[in-house]
Amino acid sequence: MIFDAHTHYGGIKGMLFSDQQMIESMDRYGIDRAMMSSTVALFGDDTGGNDALHRMMRAYPDRILGYCVPITSQTFLNLFVPSEKSS
Question: What is the arithmetic mean of pLDDT over 34-50?
Answer without folding.
Answer: 85
